[in-house]
Amino acid sequence: MSLPQYETRCTGCDEKWGVTRRSWFLGFLYDAPGNTTRSISYEVCWCFDCNSMAHAEDFEQHIKKKDWYKRHVRRLTRVRYGMSSEILIPARLRARRNREDKRNSPEMERLRARAFLPPQRHTLDQAIKEVNSRLSTSTFWLEFLGLRQSPPKCLSCAGHDFQYINSAHEKKNISEDSSVHPGCGGKLYEQESGWRFSLGVFTILYDMEGNRIDSDSAPWRGKSKFQD
To answer: Which residue of 87, 141, 193, 220 is most buried, as measured by CB atoms within 10 A?
Structure first.
């Protein structure tokens, strides 16, 4: 399966860039504590240092949610403890777990494989796993906001001199809110480039300050990592 490649164009000149909000083949990750990675929140921008379209960090939404993250972490921590101790188990989950114990016999698995039984429902362990996932995400952003010293950066040059771009999805959708090409005055819009790709995601790793990590320091070898 292949996907179309998009590009950003200007109505006032012939320039075009491969940077769009639909950059499906690019992935930007933070090298997070605990030997993990986290997806970077980013937007398309015009970088004056690069004098080009680029991607830039955008964690303003997380700054606004900082107090919410604090409450969310406290609440999820209590919920996880209660569920693990079987104190806060909803009655339906307890009943489901008991049914699953009976349904997980080899004979039931054989019938399920032949589509004679519906797939397994959420059990208590799966519910706890989901809580842990949400807790991990909220904890990361709370720690990130506490540790981060610098403002958002351009993911190409690590500069701060940029402005976020609001480009129209197609030329026919250009409106007053569509961004202007700096130095030109034309409106910016996206359209298919005519190319289609079926590759994995080209992943680039950054430290918590938004600085690109050299390939030799990345957890994987080589200049890039492709995620299927």
So the answer is: 141
The token pair at 47 is 């970088």
Region of poorest pLDDT, from 22-36, 52-66, 155-169: 22-36
Please report, for the chain, the start and end positions of each structural domain, with discontinuous segments joined by +.
3-59+153-227, 68-142
Tally Cβ neighbours within 10 Å of residue 106.
Answer: 7
d(CA 112, CA 44): 47
Residue 147's H or E segment, with its range, is helix 124-147
Non-local (6+) Cβ contacts of 206 within 8 A are: 28, 29, 30, 31, 40, 155, 212, 213
Torsion angles phi and psi, residue 10, rounded to 5: -120, 140
Separation of CA 89 from chain center: 31
Task: Give the predicted TM-score (pTM) of the model.
Answer: 0.71
